[in-house]
What we know:
The chain is an alpha/beta fold. Helix content is 30%, strand content 20%. The protein contains eight helices and seven strands. Helix 6 runs parallel beside helix 8. It is globular, with a radius of gyration of 18 Å.
Amino acid sequence: MRARLPFTLTGRVDRDAATRPRRSWQADPDTPVEQRWNTNIQLHPVLLDALPDPCGRVLDAGCGDGVLTWQLADRCASVLAVDVDGPAVERTRAVVAGREHVEVVEADVMTADLAPASFDAVVSVAVLHHLGTRPGLIRLASLVAPGGVLGVIGFARTRSGYDLAHDVVGTVAARALRRRRKVWACQAPVADVQDSYTEVLRGATLLLPGVRYRRHTLFRYSLVWTRPDDWEPPDRTASRCQAP
Length: 244
């Protein structure tokens, strides 16, 4: 049975979640940031390990409750975290309070005034399906400087036997992990997922030459891409990527 998280599938936060009794496997909402865990946080090392060394300026696109922002602050000289959700921005600011090299801004990453090719790394977790695969990837990739890194952890729909097998393994793995660690529930709004894993892979491969795609067992995929010197962003408004 899937864990009940404090938000609805329409993207609106479930305001009654805080008043319901906490289940035995759920973490205290006041859990210190360094002790928080869920299946998103479990995959943060994929992005952290992909950061350039040294890491100068990094963008956390859709910072949510700030766990990744907090981790980036220990590795990068300058961190900009943006999120369209005001309460999420405030929670992130609280997490990184006192870190002078971290800026947290309430903004839509798709329209924010961000200079092209101005970040050594751009990372996002559970955000791309909010933006749309094609326009989101083009926008995030366009912000990466040549030689810099784009890292994405995302959701997609299961529409193949291969992905269903991953989900079966993921269900067992998630339950095993939940026996050892309490699940900290992120309070950021969510959105319905439209694209399948195959569609994400196809779109990313066509848009981002050399992208490394991985299907993870915990109901997620990752994309890691280093921007070539000669890459230019295609038109975001064009039709969705189709297989050649």
